[in-house]
Design a protein that fits this description.
Helices cover 9% and strands 51% of the residues. The chain is mostly beta strands. The N and C termini lie far apart (24 Å).
């Protein structure tokens, strides 16, 4: 498995796909681990309300990333992480 740093700084994506294959897809749809405690927010910005705090080392599902924000799901709750 290859560990690839995702666009958002709070997750590290672990996958068997090569970095080139992930780049060609233009989006990530992979499990990831949070690298620190992080707020799951209702939208892509710190002005959006916090849904919950995701503890460091938690597995999340990354749907896609735009800029520094990633759309993710954790324990059935969907939101964005930076």
């Amino acid at each position: 498995m290859t560990v690839i740093k995702a666009a958002c700084r709070a997750v590290a994506v672990t996958t068997t796909a090569t970095p080139l294959a992930l780049a060609a897809q233009g989006a990530l749809a992979a499990p990831a681990l949070t690298t620190g405690n992080v707020n799951l927010r209702q939208g892509p910005g710190t002005s959006f309300p916090v849904i919950t705090l995701i503890p460091a080392g938690s597995q999340v599902e990354v749907a896609f990333c735009r800029g520094q924000w990633c759309s993710e799901t954790w324990q059935g709750q969907s939101g964005t992480l930076q």
